[in-house]
Write a structure and sequence with these properties.
543 residues, mainly beta, ten-stranded antiparallel β-sheet, five-stranded antiparallel β-sheet, 39% strand
Length: 543
């Protein structure tokens, strides 16, 4: 069965090709380019923005014939976003004029949101000039002050929702479609407090992406959709079905946005509310970006080089090179107190796992041997560093390093693809290859102290969720599969009954297509998995 963009059925033939594609991403991607400094108003601030990758001059005859329709649809999409784009751009000036705005008393208050335009109501609203001019202010970012305990997910049909873990109280945050010329919303990312989401959109014409954008909205679905960035490009994103990688700053004021275009892959900093001008910080692939938990710095691992970029307020300083460089890891891992970070470095042809203090970047401590590929992750309480090692494709061992006594012990062996710390730091969710079903994966939960592993389910992951597992160490900061109380997990894809699928001879009898669902799993393995609806990617609120 053919799969259109965002289609929520998985074809097992295409899954095999997709696995090969992901392997290629892990082993090489595009090659190295330079880290970009972003200080003040220098020329380095003027990064090349995302631009269209098509033109009549180099288009095929079919493309040229279709271009008038493409232009019409693209123009309509811009009209839908122009109000919010204008508001976002004006927000910096509006902040300076806050006192004037507070004193103004307009006779008619008109604020057109993207929802108004899509619903066709925006054209009917005509603002009446106020007695005292006042700047337009975008809706404030929603900030949650108490427990949230909800799941945000993309339904695979173009919309983003939030819902209670039992499937109740569904709220639509962004309503989209898979139809050509319509916005397809996907990949929601929670703000640190749980009050807001950022999410991406595709605009698809003739099975090609002609525009992507990043949006912000209240997690309860009641507020406006604020467009933070628009990318006029025909690139397919940072991965299959994944337009961007988005990561909130710990205070929720800024967003690191990794996107792709004709320039390759790059990362920019955006204001989540303030309307600050975007600042480029890195360009070139492979590329991994990690906020310090206190928001004062960003680590950028681009190709083999690792750099630290200081962040203060709305500014970012010059990047500082760290160590000798290595391609044997994806993302560095910050300690929860932001005082140090772990990474892999090269010394005379040998790779090692290294700790460096943020206050003393010229020195380091070698804590363990590395391997061909290494995955790293600090526990939320800062007492342990998980180290996964691979000599080939999957990780073969998972060990725990304890900085208190500089000890390391192996806690799990197998064909491990990813690991995820529970919020209380007592357990690790582990994803590994199924030994009996090709392209399927097994989930288990490992008790860090006892070493006991509880098997949960065997699953065929959705495309987006599989991509997240391949780059789990990058997504660990922004994508939460654990419930805030560490009692449950949320995953997406199709669950398999191994006893029914595996035939007496050992062959697996799999269906041609799978219906991807959002599943809530009991981390103790006692209660049965619960489906809360169709979905391709889901994330639990951070609290």
């Amino acid at each position: 069965m053919n799969r259109s963009y965002g289609f929520w059925f998985l074809n097992r033939t295409k899954l095999f090709a997709y696995r090969l594609q992901l392997a290629a991403l892990v082993l090489g991607a595009l090659g190295a380019m330079a880290i970009v400094s972003c200080t003040g108003s220098t020329e380095r601030d003027a990064q090349p923005g995302p631009t269209a990758t098509f033109s009549p001059a180099d288009a095929t005859a079919t493309w040229v014939a279709f271009k008038p329709e493409l232009d019409r649809l693209a123009a309509e999409s811009r009209e839908r976003q122009i109000v919010q784009a204008t508001i976002t751009a004006a927000a910096a000036f509006a902040e300076e004029e806050a006192n004037l705005a507070a004193a103004a008393t307009p006779t008619v208050e008109a604020f057109i949101t993207e929802r108004d335009v899509i619903a066709g109501t925006g054209s009917e609203l005509t603002p009446t000039p106020a007695a005292t001019p006042a700047p337009l202010l975008p809706p404030a970012r929603a900030i949650a002050t108490g427990e949230v305990d909800r799941i945000a997910f993309s339904d695979g049909r173009g919309s983003v929702h939030t819902v209670n873990p039992d499937g109740a109280d569904l709220a639509t945050v962004a309503s989209g479609s898979l139809l050509a010329g319509q916005f397809h919303y996907t990949f929601p990312v929670w703000s640190p407090d749980g009050g807001s989401l950022v999410f991406s959109s595709f605009l698809i014409v003739a099975n090609s992406v002609v525009q992507s954008a990043l949006h912000r909205a209240d997690a309860d679905g009641n507020g406006a959709i604020i467009t933070l960035a628009v990318d006029d490009t025909s690139q397919s994103g940072v991965g299959p079905g994944v337009p961007h990688f988005s990561s909130w700053s710990p205070d929720g004021e800024r967003i690191a946005l990794t996107t792709s275009g004709e320039f390759g892959i790059g990362t920019i900093l955006l204001g989540s509310y303030s309307g600050e001008a975007p600042k480029g910080i890195a360009l070139g692939a492979p590329l991994y970006v990690n906020w310090a938990p206190d928001g004062t710095a960003i680590l950028v691992h681009q190709a083999e080089g690792l750099h630290l970029i200081p962040v203060t307020g709305s500014g970012s300083g010059a990047p500082v090179a760290i160590g000798n460089g290595s391609i044997s890891f994806n993302s560095p891992s910050w300690s929860p107190d932001s005082q140090s970070f772990a990474y892999v470095d090269s010394f005379g042809g040998k790779t090692s796992v290294v700790l460096t203090q943020k206050s003393d970047l010229d020195n380091y401590e070698v804590i363990a041997d590395a391997d061909v590929r290494v995955g790293l992750g600090w526990s939320p309480d800062g007492k342990h560093l998980a180290i996964a090692r691979s000599s080939g494709t999957a990780f073969h061992t998972l060990s725990i390093y304890s900085p208190a006594d500089s000890s390391e012990r192996t806690v799990y062996e197998g064909d491990i693809r990813a690991f995820w710390w529970s919020p209380d730091s007592s357990r690790l969710a582990i994803v590994e290859d199924s030994p009996v079903i090709d392209l399927a994966h097994m989930w288990s939960v490992l008790d860090v102290e006892s070493g006991e592993a509880i098997p949960l389910v065997t699953q065929v992951l959705s495309d987006e969720f599989l991509f997240v597992q391949v780059f789990f160490d990058q997504y660990a900061e922004s994508h939460h599969i654990w419930a805030p109380d560490s009692s449950r997990l949320v995953i997406t894809g199709a669950l398999l009954d191994v006893d029914r699928v595996v035939q007496p001879g050992g062959a697996a009898d799999l269906p041609e297509t799978f219906d991807s669902q959002v599943w809530v799993l009991d981390a103790a393995g006692v209660e049965e998995p619960v489906s809360i609806g169709r979905g391709t990617i889901a994330s639990w609120s951070p609290r």
